[in-house]
């Protein structure tokens, strides 16, 4: 089992643990805000299961119907998570409205707040692990899951603040008011996750930082041969894989064998710089040079 899959299964376990703790906090207090927070954790569990399914699909090798692999399955998972975040926020808003119209004092608020805070600390720590590992392994599903958990932590902090202020002041209406404000923040976060995932589905190019790295790698590797320039560079992400294709201009007298050997060296250099790269190089004669692409280092 890969490291990414282990983390995905870990998210399911952590989600169930946190949800259990928050359900206990709600059961002890009867607080609407804590109930909303507990039910939001149910979304976390569903999202974690969706990540597991997406990663299993993404790991499948390329076949005749999917010659480029199944890597984009991760983006579908990330979009689903964004939608679930939005649904959770709308549910919290509904509960907050009901609590605002009929506020009441919860039971055993201190015990419930303490348990909820402990669950939030677990969520926050795991979110940090997921985002860091997701970026290291170039897994948008893990990053989205981590960001989803951060919204849950923000929501929990808001709920705790609302319950705490209501407890100190006796204004129990603050409980649902704070829950409503946090729900609005969750809506914004959910939209961010959906937007980022859709960019992957739309074959958005790599970041400027990665593009600069790719251009420099091509220029340096191509300098070991007789290449003139590289142009029409195109990139896109598909889960953990980065697809790179470009045209490499060579002198007309270059043999096929020489051009092939240089392409192999460039491809190897790109795969060293980006381990999950998939490289396609189209060789062209010198008269095809555009003089506006990547200048080969001499």
UniProtKB/TrEMBL annotation:
<dbReference type="InterPro" id="IPR036837">
    <property type="entry name" value="Cation_efflux_CTD_sf"/>
</dbReference>
<feature type="transmembrane region" description="Helical">
    <location>
        <begin position="7"/>
        <end position="29"/>
    </location>
</feature>
<feature type="transmembrane region" description="Helical">
    <location>
        <begin position="41"/>
        <end position="58"/>
    </location>
</feature>
<feature type="transmembrane region" description="Helical">
    <location>
        <begin position="109"/>
        <end position="129"/>
    </location>
</feature>
<keyword id="KW-1133">Transmembrane helix</keyword>
<comment type="similarity">
    <text>Belongs to the cation diffusion facilitator (CDF) transporter (TC 2.A.4) family.</text>
</comment>
<keyword id="KW-0812">Transmembrane</keyword>
<dbReference type="Pfam" id="PF16916">
    <property type="entry name" value="ZT_dimer"/>
</dbReference>
<dbReference type="InterPro" id="IPR058533">
    <property type="entry name" value="Cation_efflux_TM"/>
</dbReference>
<dbReference type="GO" id="GO:0005886">
    <property type="term" value="C:plasma membrane"/>
</dbReference>
<dbReference type="GO" id="GO:0015341">
    <property type="term" value="F:zinc efflux antiporter activity"/>
</dbReference>
<protein>
    <recommendedName>
        <fullName>Protein p34</fullName>
    </recommendedName>
</protein>
<feature type="transmembrane region" description="Helical">
    <location>
        <begin position="149"/>
        <end position="171"/>
    </location>
</feature>
<keyword id="KW-0472">Membrane</keyword>
<feature type="domain" description="Cation efflux protein transmembrane">
    <location>
        <begin position="11"/>
        <end position="202"/>
    </location>
</feature>
<dbReference type="InterPro" id="IPR002524">
    <property type="entry name" value="Cation_efflux"/>
</dbReference>
<dbReference type="GO" id="GO:0015093">
    <property type="term" value="F:ferrous iron transmembrane transporter activity"/>
</dbReference>
<keyword id="KW-0813">Transport</keyword>
<dbReference type="Pfam" id="PF01545">
    <property type="entry name" value="Cation_efflux"/>
</dbReference>
<dbReference type="InterPro" id="IPR027470">
    <property type="entry name" value="Cation_efflux_CTD"/>
</dbReference>
<dbReference type="InterPro" id="IPR050291">
    <property type="entry name" value="CDF_Transporter"/>
</dbReference>
<dbReference type="GO" id="GO:0006882">
    <property type="term" value="P:intracellular zinc ion homeostasis"/>
</dbReference>
<feature type="domain" description="Cation efflux protein cytoplasmic">
    <location>
        <begin position="208"/>
        <end position="286"/>
    </location>
</feature>
<dbReference type="InterPro" id="IPR027469">
    <property type="entry name" value="Cation_efflux_TMD_sf"/>
</dbReference>
<dbReference type="GO" id="GO:0015086">
    <property type="term" value="F:cadmium ion transmembrane transporter activity"/>
</dbReference>
<feature type="transmembrane region" description="Helical">
    <location>
        <begin position="78"/>
        <end position="97"/>
    </location>
</feature>
<keyword id="KW-1003">Cell membrane</keyword>
